[in-house]
Structure formats: structure tokens, C-alpha cells
Write a structure and sequence with these properties.
The complex is a heterodimer of chains A (194) and B (546).
Chain A lengths: L8 H4 L5 H4 L2 H26 L30 E2 L14 H5 L5 E7 L7 E9 L8 H5 L5 E2 L16 E2 L1 H6 L3 H4 L6 H7 L1
Antiparallel strand pairs in A: 1-4, 2-3, 3-5
Chain B lengths: L2 E4 L2 E4 L6 H7 L23 E4 L6 E2 L10 E3 L3 H14 L17 H10 L16 E2 L4 E3 L9 H9 L5 E4 L6 E4 L12 H5 L5 E3 L12 E6 L8 E6 L12 E6 L12 H4 L15 E3 L5 E3 L2 H19 L4 E5 L5 H14 L4 E3 L23 H9 L8 H9 L5 E5 L3 H4 L2 H7 L5 E6 L4 H5 L2 E4 L8 E4 L5 E4 L12 H11 L9 H11 L8 H4 L6 H10 L1
Parallel strand pairs in B: 1-5, 16-17, 16-18, 18-19, 19-20
Antiparallel strand pairs in B: 1-2, 3-4, 3-5, 6-7, 7-10, 8-9, 11-12, 12-13, 14-15, 14-20, 21-22
Helix pairs in contact in B: 2-3, 8-9, 8-14, 8-15
Classes of the chains: A alpha+beta (194), B alpha+beta (546).
Bound molecules: iron/sulfur cluster (4 copies) and FE2/S2 (inorganic) cluster (FES).
One iron/sulfur cluster binds next to helix 5 of chain A.
């Protein structure tokens, strides 16, 4: 066993200089910093308004939740299960995603279907979002392109641990972001209503 | 003996050996589909092509016999290209349904493609359609699109079971493996077809979609279905318990033993695992208190009750009115401990193991034996021979019916297959203190003063002797079901209460004690038994001749 070196935070604190300890000068320096950001942004916004500056204007506060940051199309967001044209799940319960998931948060139970061109489908399909690390391995592993992380949903919450487990009905009901557009889905609301 | 060189290594093998077998001896694995060591040679898949010096073309290793001075190469560029081409041919019409295929994970197409294939497909034509998900018998599902026409299954039903249910019909790429018209594949060994098929064309209906094979853990064991004692592997799903309906044991597979079962096992044995986690397992001790009905109980109370009731009853009616039935469903160790406690400790002379034969027992020239007890040979050695009285279960039941038995222990399963519930109820009516140590609920546990749950062969280590006297070990594959406990523990606890000598609780130590005391097992240990078992009678025969 190696010895544990204990570092006291107080030992690491830099001793303040005389001017720093006078306080007034430091307050003034802080004000200068804030003012500089304000004026730089004011300047950028003005140029952008008159059309001189292209691209995004200066720093801005997003008025969340009314306004949301734009998402990259590749962003890994909440999972959904894709459907066949007839509405049945594309998933064939091959267990690839369950096997690859590093968080062990996918649980699938398989069942047999009469249709011999499909043979197998999930009877239940649970993802425990509370444990998911959003690595996207499940999407990567799926040979049927059945599990996708393109709902654009990032606000996920529930009032219990069990509420964080999404079942097959929920997963099949979620639309892709491309279909939903910018219309927000309040996921918490949906879960609470259920 | 011809001497040949394979991949620059020399080996001497007996004449008549094939190149594939000689290579195996050197630890060189040549890929193969149609070659199966338990069947005749077909030489049809061409996967095993190797380069033989001075031969103009590549030769199939499975049907080329070794000659002196032969030089074989298995990894040259020519061979690599040939393997790739063969795989491309085999996969030309293959549906690639690995996601829904139960064979995925143990499929030779997947394995060899990753090892030797890895070509880019050049096929532009559409794939041929054939039969999918077609049940061809009670245990086997056929998907003829996945079949690579290796004919292993056809040779199996022709040569091993001699039932001839399968054939390859039509010509060219329309060739298709199908059952003969109007025939169901329901021979007693049909489960083996799923084992011989190197791909997912023949799969086990019982195992269908239950659990992916890569989640399974394998435990070496011995089948307890009959006196043959086929070597098996128990495949259990301990890691992802939401699969397989929450049950642990997913399937049994035969394990090669050239002295016992070769590559095969019968269907009765293969599907016998279902009773291990069935709903009628006894999962809790049951106690009947005087003047009350039978109630669920716990181990401390149940053992205390046995102590009290048996001591009281034996004190009143004497040991002569006490009897023990220890069935040959028990392991050598369990029988040894039972003998120690009851015969030597408590001096109960009436200890029986021999029953009337199971009416459902069938025998054939392949594996199955009429005796459906796994350890009759061992029981005879351990319980039967050493004392002269040697009553049978029938005589004990008669004595009980005549009111001569007041205390009785019934240990181990298998009685219900031989005696009807009504008969047992009738015969045991006059037994006042009945102690049943059983795996399953039955009339015995129902009538018992105290019923104790015990582990089955999958939940405990042990050893049994097959009909030839071969001593074989089996291993624990899963934790005990419910509150059941190993019989060795229960007997040791009882012995402690009565201050009698206890047998070791660990099966391995118990076997060591058995080996010291019973001549037949002399010199054996779990280590020397190994995975394949030892037949001491044969060993002594060879020792006597040399
Ligand atoms: S994103 Fe990663 S952690 Fe989440 S379910 Fe998929 S594989 Fe598991
Ligand atoms: S990998 Fe795809 S098809 Fe397979 S179980 Fe997961 S979602 Fe279903
Ligand atoms: S037989 Fe093998 S290669 Fe063919 S679908 Fe099944 S697992 Fe895949
Ligand atoms: S069903 Fe299997 S064993 Fe039979 S010929 Fe086809 S691939 Fe070979
Ligand atoms: S294994 Fe040799 S030809 Fe099939």
C-alpha cells in the first residue's frame, strides 16, 4: 500500500498581494471585464443588424425553454425504435444492442412471430435511460437500423427510477426529429401524464 | 507407420489416417463443414482444401489418406484463395439472417467467414428462395435457405439412428435438404441434428429464441436420464436472467466421450432438464406438527422436528421398525453419507435402493438403457452389497403396508415413475413418522411428517457410476432452487444432532472417504476421474493381465 498524500486546500491558496487585499481596485477590474464583454457584443450585434457582419451575432442568451439551441443532426439524443411500413417494430430482437451496451441498460425479451419472413420480434424492449451513457453503440450495432437516437429529445426526466425505464410502446411512439420539426416534446410531461 | 509433414512439422500416424486427423493431432485446425468425426466421410463441401506437394491440384484433407513422406501445407496463398472462393459459393444463396438465427454465435459460417473469408461479394444475381421456419419434427426446425448441403444430417439419420428421414432433393442450386415426403423427424435422437448441422439450418425448437448462445455458461456434467450416463454440458443463462423465462438452464448438449456416448445423447435426456426448474419443485421444508396439518416451515424447525419425532418413534417402536429408501437417483457421495448415517450410525438394517423397473425405460443399440436410474451400479456397491439383509423397495413397502414399519426415510427421486401415487399412499398409510428428502413435491412429501427439499444434480457436485461401472463426475451449474440444500449437508446436520459420525459435507472429500473405504473406488479422486470418468473394473482387468 502506498502512502496517501493529503493536500490541504488552505496550503495551495496563493497569498494575496497588497493591492488585491485593498479590495477596491479588484472590484474595479471586475467591472472593466464585464463592461468590455458588453461593449464588444453591442458592437457585434450592431454590425450584424446593419448587415455588415455575417454568421451568428455576438454572444446571446437563449430564451430557454421558448428558444432552443440548434442541434447538430448527428447529435445522439433519446432513443426510439423504428417501425416497418405496417407499424410493427423493425427490431428482430437479435440482442446485438443489448450485448454491446456498456451500461447494461437494454433488456429485450424475444418472441416468435408466425410470419416466417420475420420470425422473431421483441415482446418487450426496455431501455433504462437513467443508466444510459448515450454512447450510441446500440445504434452502431443494430443490423436492422431499428434503434435510432434521432428524436432530438434531450430533456429527460421522471419522478422515480422506474419512470426512467422506457418500454417498447414509448420507444415505438417517439417520432424522429426530422418529422417532429422544431415542435418541442416535453418528455417529462409525457411521462407524467402516463 | 507413415510419416508426413504438415506445415513444416513432422508427425507419424497409423496408416489409414486422413490428413485432417493428422493435422488435428498437431493442433492444426483445418476448416471443415461436411467432415464430422462421428459420421462417414462425404468430401462434399471442399472447405478443407490443402496443398499437397506433387499433387497437381488442392486436395481435400478430410478424404486424403496419409502416405509416407507426404508434405502438406495448410496456409499457402493458394489455399487461402480457395477457402475464400468456397465460402463465397456456400454463401451465394445464403439468406444471412444471423439476427434471427439461433445458430449465430456458434455458426461455422460466421466463424470461417471471419477467419478465412472476408471477401467482398461479387454476386449480382438474386438469392434463391427456399423453405423457412419449417418444423420437421417435434424437436427440430428446418430453414433450408440456410443449409449448405453438407449432408451431415442425412448421414446422421442414415448411419447413426438408421431412420432415414432426411434427403437432399432436386438438382443444382435448387438442391434442398428436406424430410422424405410424409415423414416426421421424430427419432429418439433427433435433437442431435441441431448439433451436427454446422450452420443454422437445423435448430432446436425447444431452444428457439430463448437466449442468445453467447450469454450461456457451460458446465460439464453427466446426464441423469438413464444408466448410460452420457457426458453432457449444461448451458445455463446466469448472466442475463430476463431471458429464458427467468430460468437458468437453457439447454443440454452432449459432450464427447468415446467410451460412453461418443457425440450423441437421446432426446429424453436432452429435454430432461425441464424438471430441474419446474413448478413442482419442493422449495421449502414442510412440517406436520402433532394434531395439526402440514405447514411450510424453515430448516431449523424442520431439523429439530426430525430429531424429536424420529428419536421418539424409534425409542417407542425400535430400530427394527425403521426403514430407509435411498434411490439410485442419488450420487455415490450421497449414498455413502446415507449409509454412514442410517446403517452404521443409527443401525437401521432395512435400507433399500432396488426398485421395480421403470415401465417407461427403453433400450436400443445406440445409447438408451431400460434402467432409468443414473446410479444403480453405485447404489448396489454402496448400499447393496456390504450388508446381507439387502431388502428391496418392494419388500419395504410391503412391510410398511403390514404395519411393521413405523419410521421411514425416503430419500431421492425416481419412485413416482415406478409406483403410482395411489399405491404409495396405500402402502405408506401405516408409517407413523415419514421423513421425505426430495427434489420434487409428490405424494411422499404430502404424506411426510417432515419433508426437506434437496438439490438436483445440476445444483451440486457429485459422481455416479453408469451401467458399466464407469465412475463419472458432474459439476454444479446453478445455485440451489428455493431453500433446497445439498443432501450431504442435511445428513451431516442430522448426524450432528444425534452425535453420530458425519460424512464430509464437501462432495470431493466425501468421495475421498468413499475411495478409502469401498474397494471399488480405491485410488480414485475427483482429480483422477477428470472430465471423462474412469472405469475401475476395466482398470483392474488390465492391471491383472499386465
Ligand atoms: S447509447 Fe450506449 S449506453 Fe445508451 S442504450 Fe445505447 S449502447 Fe447502451
Ligand atoms: S440491435 Fe436492432 S434489431 Fe437487434 S435487438 Fe437491438 S434494436 Fe432490435
Ligand atoms: S446459419 Fe450462420 S451465417 Fe447463416 S444466418 Fe444463421 S448464423 Fe448467420
Ligand atoms: S441441414 Fe445442416 S447438416 Fe443438413 S445438409 Fe444442411 S447444412 Fe448440412
Ligand atoms: S470437410 Fe472436407 S470436403 Fe467437407
Amino acid at each position: 500500500m502506498g502512502t496517501v498524500r493529503v493536500i490541504h486546500v488552505s496550503e495551495r491558496r496563493r497569498t494575496l498581494t497588497f493591492w488585491e487585499r485593498t479590495y477596491l481596485l479588484e472590484v474595479f477590474r471586475g467591472l472593466v471585464l464585464t463592461a468590455r464583454h458588453f461593449f464588444v457584443n453591442l458592437w457585434r450585434h450592431s454590425l450584424w443588424l446593419v448587415g455588415v457582419k455575417s454568421g451568428p451575432p455576438g454572444a446571446a442568451t437563449f430564451q430557454y425553454p421558448e428558444v432552443r439551441r440548434p442541434q447538430s443532426p448527428r447529435l445522439r439524443t433519446l432513443h426510439r425504435l423504428a417501425k416497418r411500413p405496417d407499424g410493427t417494430p423493425r427490431c428482430v430482437a437479435c440482442m446485438m444492442c443489448e450485448t454491446v451496451c456498456p451500461a447494461f441498460c437494454i433488456k429485450i425479451v424475444a418472441e416468435e412471430v408466425d410470419d416466417s419472413s420475420i420470425e422473431k420480434r421483441p415482446k418487450s424492449f426496455d431501455i433504462d435511460i437513467g443508466r444510459c451513457v448515450f454512447c450510441g453503440f446500440c445504434v452502431e450495432a443494430c443490423p436492422e437500423d431499428a434503434i435510432r437516437m434521432d428524436t432530438g429529445i434531450t430533456e429527460i426526466g421522471a419522478l422515480s427510477r422506474d419512470g426512467m425505464v422506457l418500454n417498447i410502446e414509448t420507444l415505438l411512439s417517439l417520432p424522429p426529429k426530422s418529422e417532429r420539426g422544431d415542435k418541442p416534446v416535453d418528455f417529462l410531461q409525457q411521462q407524467l401524464v402516463q | 507407420m507413415p510419416k508426413l509433414t504438415i506445415d513444416d512439422r513432422t508427425i507419424e500416424v497409423p496408416a489409414g489416417t486422413t490428413v485432417i486427423q493428422a493435422a488435428e493431432k498437431l493442433g492444426i485446425y483445418i476448416p471443415r463443414y461436411c467432415y464430422h468425426p462421428g459420421l462417414s466421410i462425404a468430401g462434399s463441401c471442399r472447405m478443407c482444401l490443402v496443398e499437397v506437394e506433387k499433387a497437381p491440384k488442392l486436395q481435400i484433407a478430410c478424404y486424403t489418406f496419409v502416405t509416407d513422406g507426404m508434405v502438406v501445407r495448410t496456409t499457402t496463398e493458394k489455399v487461402t484463395i480457395a477457402r475464400q472462393a468456397i465460402l463465397e459459393f456456400l454463401l451465394a444463396n445464403h439468406p444471412l439472417d444471423c439476427p434471427v438465427c439461433d445458430q449465430a454465435g456458434e455458426c461455422k459460417l460466421q466463424e470461417f467467414y471471419m477467419q478465412f473469408g472476408q471477401y467482398d461479394s461479387t454476386l449480382l444475381e438474386n438469392k434463391l428462395k427456399k423453405h423457412k421456419a419449417m418444423p420437421i419434427g417435434p424437436h427440430i426446425m428446418l430453414d433450408s435457405e440456410r443449409c449448405i448441403l453438407c449432408s451431415r444430417c442425412v448421414r446422421f439419420v442414415d448411419e447413426v439412428t438408421k431412420t432415414h428421414e432426411l434427403g437432399i432433393f432436386n438438382r443444382g442450386d435448387h438442391s434442398e435438404l428436406l424430410p422424405v415426403k410424409g415423414v416426421t423427424v421424430d427419432n429418439a435422437y433427433s435433437g442431435c441434428l441441431a448439433d451436427v448441422c454446422p450452420v443454422g439450418a437445423l435448430t432446436d425448437r425447444d431452444f428457439r429464441f430463448k437466449v442468445r448462445v453467447w450469454y450461456l455458461d457451460k458446465t460439464e456434467s453427466v446426464c441423469h436420464g438413464c444408466a448410460r450416463g452420457c457426458n453432457i454440458e449444461i448451458h445455463s443463462n446466469r448472466r442475463r436472467t430476463h431471458h429464458n423465462d427467468g430460468r437458468l438452464i437453457a439447454r443440454l448438449k452432449p459432450r464427447f466421450n468415446g467410451e460412453v456416448n461418443h457425440h450423441w445423447m437421446c432426446d429424453t435426456g436432452r429435454y430432461s432438464y425441464k424438471s430441474i426448474e419446474s413448478d413442482d419443485r419442493l422449495v421449502q421444508p414442510l412440517v406436520r406438527l402433532t394434531g395439526k396439518g402440514q405447514e411450510k416451515s424453515d430448516w431449523t424447525l424442520a431439523l429439530a422436528q426430525i430429531d424429536e419425532q424420529v428419536t421418539h418413534q424409534v425409542g417407542r417402536s425400535g430400530v427394527a421398525a425403521a426403514a430407509v429408501i435411498a434411490t439410485p437417483a442419488l450420487s455415490n457421495e450421497e449414498l455413502w453419507a446415507a449409509r454412514g448415517l442410517f446403517l452404521q450410525g443409527m443401525k437401521i438394517e432395512k435400507i433399500a435402493h432396488r426398485c421395480t423397473p421403470d415401465p417407461n425405460g427403453v433400450e436400443d443399440s445406440l445409447l438408451r438403457k431400460t434402467d432409468t436410474f443414473p446410479n444403480s451400479f453405485g447404489a448396489n456397491l454402496i448400499i447393496g452389497q456390504p450388508h446381507t439383509a439387502d431388502p428391496t423397495v418392494d419388500t419395504i413397502l410391503e412391510a410398511a403396508a403390514a404395519g411393521k414399519i413405523k419410521t421411514m426415510f425416503v430419500i431421492g427421486g425416481g419412485l413416482l415413475e415406478r409406483y403410482s401415487t395411489d399405491l404409495l399412499r396405500e402402502k405408506l398409510r401405516n408409517v407413523e413418522t415419514l421423513i421425505a428428502i426430495q427434489t420434487h413435491r409428490s405424494v411422499l412429501t404430502e404424506m411426510a411428517t417432515v419433508a426437506l427439499p434437496m438439490t438436483s444434480f445440476a445444483e451440486m457436485d457429485g459422481s455416479i457410476c453408469n451401467f458399466e461401472g464407469r465412475v463419472q463426475r458432474y459439476n454444479q451449474a446453478m445455485p440451489p432452487v428455493g431453500q433446497s440444500r445439498p443432501l450431504l449437508d442435511t445428513l451431516a446436520d442430522l448426524a450432528n444432532r444425534w452425535e453420530l459420525k458425519t460424512a464430509p459435507r464437501q462432495p470431493e472429500n466425501c468421495f475421498a472417504e468413499l475411495a478409502q473405504n469401498a474397494g471399488y473406488f480405491a485410488g480414485l479422486s475427483y482429480e483422477t476421474l477428470g472430465d471423462g470418468g474412469v472405469n475401475p473394473s476395466r482398470r483392474s482387468a488390465t492391471a491383472a493381465t499386465t
